[in-house]
Amino acid sequence: MRKFLIAALTALAGSTALADEFTEADLERWAAQFESVAQEGRNLWTSPELGTNGVACAQCHPNAANTHPETYPKFQKQLGRVAQMWEMINWCIRNPLEGEDLAPGDPRMTALLAYIAKERRGVPLEPGKH
Amino acid sequence: MRMNRRGFLRQTGAVAAAGVLPVSMVRLAFGQEGQDFTFAYISDSHIQHIRGNEFVRNWDQGLKRAVAEALLEPKPDFVVFGGDLAQLGTKAELDHGAEMLSALRYPLYAVMGEHDYYLDLGEYWSELFGDHYYSFDHKGVHFVVLNSVLTYDEWTYHRWETPERRMLEMAGLDNPNGSPFMVGERQREWLRRDLARIPRTTPIVVLSHSPLQKIYKGWNFWTEDAEEVQAILAPFEKVTVLYGHVHQIQYNQIGSISFHSVMATAWPWPYPETYAHSGAYVPVMTVPMNRADPFNERDATGWQFIDVHTGRVAAHYTLYDNKNRTVAYNAATGRPEDTEYQNPARRIPPQAHY
Amino acid sequence: MRLALLLLSLGAALRVAAQPLGLPPVPIPEDNPQTPEKIALGERLFNDVRFSSNGQVACANCHSPSSVFTDSPLKVSVGVDGLTGTRNAPTVVNAAYNLTQFWDGRSPTLEDQALHPFVNPVEMALPSHDPILEVIRADRDYVRDFRRVFGVRAEDIRIEHVTQAIAAFERTLIAGDSPFDRWYFGGDENAISEAAKRGFEVFLTDGRCVSCHTIEHDHALFTDHRFHNIGVGVNAMQDRIEELAKAFLVAKQRGVDVDVAVLSDADTSHLGRFAVTGDLSEIGAFKTPTLRNIAVTAPYMHDGSIATLREVVEHYNNGGVLPAGAPVNPFLSGGIRPLNLTEQQIDDLVAFMESLTSPEFQQLAQPERVSALGAGR
Description:
The structure holds three protein chains of three kinds. By secondary structure, chain A is mainly alpha-helical. Chain A contains five helices and two strands; from the N terminus they run αααββαα. By secondary structure, chain B is of the alpha/beta class. Chain B has ten helices and 17 strands. Chain B has helices at residues 5-12, 57-70, 91-101, 114-117, 123-129, 153-158, 163-171, 185-196, 226-233, 349-352, and strands at residues 37-42, 49-51, 54-55, 79-81, 108-110, 134-138, 141-145, 204-208, 214-216, 221-222, 239-243, 251-254, 257-261, 302-309, 312-319, 325-330, 335-338. The longest helix of chain B is centred in the N-terminal third of the chain and has 14 residues, at 57-70. Chains in contact: A-B, A-C, B-C.
């Protein structure tokens, strides 16, 4: 019985990756999934769908410029307290775009954050900077 | 509300004589009396239609406010509208914008913007405002208005299935499917002929939508044939280019040509250097406008009145809820300078903290 | 007698609170430090009716300690001989935090502000500050106090000493620790009603109030110290703006005193900050006041034209105009727009504002009648 068990376990070990391993294929796949979410974010960025008055984020923030994701969390004047980026995105959706808040876990919010971060890649973190 | 150009001008340039009030803010007159004058410059209102009779309130408000304030200034000789009256070039938007502009009781000269042009290639614009490019003389200064938002024929005529699609593609500032602005050979030819009869000492002011420089191609802060246009202007001693499109304060000096951008009434744009992957910078001498406060819809938007004396330009930016700025030609250094903040030691945090 | 006791206890309460919850430290200028004697002297000067042309008007007439240092319920203030001005008296409570004084910010400091009402024709109407100094020099107690506080002899007392003392007294008039403060900064979940909590949410979101009535992480002054045209006063004179603005600039160039001009004519008063700076983009703009103790300092706005908090919210809800649908002036500050608030949201906003009353003034508070919808809390 013991011999059988050892053999079975060894066979199993050879056929799947261990818990702390991931393969090149995994990395590529996951990167592609991020890219598609970021692309969805770009689509939302340029579309009038987030608000009710036709205004799109890209009108004031071409290439997500001037969103400064590297500075969050920070004191956000519009909210009167230290806040996270997604809260400021909701402020923009509510005010210039005259739309409704997105829940923080909403796939659209994730997509927006992914796009913003992607356009800002490489910039060092400076949390709290105004 | 259809109006031909003559009708429009009749309405605006009308009975201004009645009720002319004393000029309280007297501009110091330098040099020859005949060469000093002021004109108002309003630009980039981007009137955006939502549905029915609804337009984006924020942009409407910006244009209304500029017009209301421009009416209060000491009477300008004329008003220039710098382009992008509409957002998507529709008749509804152009009409709504023209209606708001019509409150100005002064002669109006309009410059074409890409948001006005790419739906119907400026057909309705012509009905409202006349020619796309032309020149006129005023108190010894030769003004040239260019349509500097043209682009390659292939993109304009063959790339897109519908005019609406073409307009949408050009409307996105950062759209990779866009196409660079240019003045184009036909207008350059016209410009050469127009300027051939002008003495080299006559001051020239060029009114353009695109910058007639190459600043950042990704956002079409760019004129593809900038060098050729500049070469045509270079022989003249005093040339100023006033341009819109960028929605921010920029200025520059290239040879004998001074460049000044004008503000948008609708919304501000960030400087190209704030986009980490642009690799682009505005001219070094530009002192940035204050970083916009999104809280305040009108912050970093505004309009300007342009003083011309001895053929040089001083641009006075009327900035809402903010301290006004003046960028004027400095004869000592031979370039435009911010009269208050040019010295880096004098800058305030909102100008440096982007 | 009861009134006197009330005033005494108010004064005591105000002076004892070192730093009330929800407020930052009071800014004290280096050249006018606080001392108990200076403060007491300033209080006396503040209440002295002899510094007026008819001997009946003191600062305290329009900034009365029993009315949160305003003259509520008056819309505009009344000076000597029943003369009225054009503006509603702002409260002195927490004025020490303002970066400028007066509705149009024409005074940079408390010290400077105190100079003006003495010589304004519709306030104390003195021909100059000299009569004040004469009264002081003839008063033995004043002479003694000025010497003790400023080290000056009677003949060397100047009006600057007077205003410094008054300002020192005013810097003690701070009040926080409202139910809102105890909830938001103090963590007391039961300090305010559910309606007020909902109202605070509206304040931050759909109401957009926090845009100008700002709050910070550990304190709240409820003002951005800036000047905004929110459509009060100026809406009604839209047709005359062009004519008036130009005429005013001409008059100013010829030397008219802004302080006198804005209090003498309602339309001139409505020009707001423009009268001070001459900047066209500030036509009809007024300073954002604090919202602290707002429920007990009615009526509202620079001309006292809005009687209740509910109507104030309706004014904003309409996009800067009362009644709804009337034309709005084009110089409106960025951010004023129709809000589309529900009746419930409006009631809740009012409830929130009522929670901003400091304990010292609580007894003056009378909750506004809410709409039929908001009867339950």
